[in-house]
Amino acid sequence: MVDHRGLVAWTRIRHVSDQLPHDDANENDVTVRYWAAARAAAGVAEETVSALTLAELLDEIGRRHRDRDRFDDVISICSILVGETPVGAKDPAQVPLPRGVNVEFLPPFAGG
């Protein structure tokens, strides 16, 4: 049996935070979340980045973590979600980032 209480609590917090007013000075801020090996490579679980497109976000996180040995290698193999939508093979410059969206980096994992 899988315990989903943590996921339910996280979902509730996420929905409440989505309803909070946003500071206009940071209208392009998005939340970046790193999972598993991506978290280890970044050295953080989450950070805020100001970006209008996924390409801008990738450039910024690349700059922020350029001193991390495996960051670029791990990020390059991650699946990326913008909100709940997979990016897939889309051109990052053509993927807009709405204000306050969550961008998730999910490395490949095994299991079943």
Automatic annotation (TrEMBL):
It comes from Aeromicrobium chenweiae. This is Molybdopterin synthase sulfur carrier subunit. InterPro entries: Beta-grasp_dom_sf, Mopterin_synth/thiamin_S_b, ThiS/MoaD-like. It comes from the Bacteria. Pfam families: ThiS (PF02597).
